[in-house]
Amino acid sequence: MTPTIKEIAKKANVSIATVSRALNNDKRVTEETKNLIHSVAEELNYKPNILARNFVRKKSNIIGLILPDIFDEFFTEIIKGVDEVTFQHGVFTMVASSHKFRSLEESLASLIRNGLVGGLILLIPTLSKEIKSILGQTKMPFVLISGELHSAEYDVVSIDNYQGAYDMTNYLIKKKGYTKIAHITGPKDNDDSKLREKGFIDACLENQITISKKFLARGDFTRESGIKLGMDLLSIKNGPQVIFAANDMMALGCYDAAGKKGLSIPEDIAVVGFDDIFVSQYLNPSLTTVRVQIEEVGKSAATLLMNRMNDDTKKPGEKIKINTELVIRESC
């Protein structure tokens, strides 16, 4: 049976109120008494009821992290970064995701309503009217992880998607000499995808490279779409010399497609990606990609939220942009 503060009080020969104050680091309790109570609590293997403590303090030490999904390495790196920061602040992270049974909006509304969390980090593909409406009705501090910086009213952590895609396309043209470049984009309603596509197109136009419609393919950031669209691109007569996938998961799919076609990378078809997920360096050949400090995205969002939760006087609207860099390996 789980020990209670009543049992701690009895064993330490103090009042229940003193135990409660000591466990909450109240200045009215002497260091000697605090040490005694913590020693007894440890001896009895006492674990505080977090929900009850939050109720008494009227302040939660749990934050919600809402992700579109948690199916690949990108999202696990975000979780890792957030948790590392919140742990240092004595705050617990509750992870929720949308999936085929629940929308992102439903996940957001549910976490706000349940009263468990004191702050939110929300990774959104785009800021929809529904999400904006829900956020406008809460006084809870929150931070967005998003491709766009959005309006001044929101705290936002963003990846420099445009510059990363522009730099990669420029590299393929100027350093590698490619003139026939295919691009597998992300979803149409995703801000990261839009910015990466724009960076690709602008770099091509500035270098007088013609963008063939048949070389632009709409993906969804999954490996499966990389396989399908990779197969389609590799079936085109006089097809591309290189495929620039808008994330590494789709680039992995292109590796699979090349294998199915009996083609070698980079001799028959070059492939590059975006994100630099952990597995990219261990592919054969290793993947040339745009490095995003994904864990740093999570850390920055969590740090911003911790600051916001501890200081209600600051107005929201802080913007943090995470830089990208090219990682040149063996796939092109």
Question: Can you lay out the helices and strands and say which pair or pack?
Answer:
Blueprint: H1 5-12, H2 16-23, H3 31-43, H4 50-57, E1 62-67, H5 73-88, E2 92-97, H6 104-113, E3 119-123, H7 129-136, E4 142-145, E5 156-159, H8 161-175, E6 181-185, H9 191-206, E7 216-218, H10 223-234, E8 242-245, H11 248-261, E9 270-275, E10 288-292, H12 294-310, E11 319-322, E12 324-327
Parallel strand pairs: 1-2, 1-3, 3-4, 4-5, 5-11, 6-7, 6-8, 8-9, 9-10
Antiparallel strand pairs: 10-12
Helix pairs in contact: 1-2, 1-3, 5-12, 8-9, 10-11
Describe the structure.
This protein is α/β, with parallel strands linked by helices and 332 residues long. It has 3 domains: 5-48, Orthogonal Bundle (434 Repressor (Amino-terminal Domain)), CATH 1.10.260; 62-159 and 294-322, Response regulator (Rossmann fold, 3-Layer(aba) Sandwich), CATH 3.40.50.2300; 161-292, 3-Layer(aba) Sandwich (Rossmann fold). The chain is 44% helix and 17% strand. The chain is built from 12 helices and 12 strands. The protein has helices spanning 5-12, 16-23, 31-43, 50-57, 73-88, 104-113, 129-136, 161-175, 191-206, 223-234, 248-261, 294-310, and strands at 62-67, 92-97, 119-123, 142-145, 156-159, 181-185, 216-218, 242-245, 270-275, 288-292, 319-322, 324-327. The strands form 2 sheets. Strands 2-1-3-4-5-11 form a 6-stranded parallel β-sheet, with helices on both faces. β6, α9 (191-206) and β7 (216-218) form a beta-alpha-beta unit. α1 (5-12) crosses α2, α5 (73-88) runs parallel beside α12 and α10 (223-234) packs across α11 (248-261). It is elongated and about 85 Å long. The protein starts with a helix and ends in a 5-residue tail after the last strand.
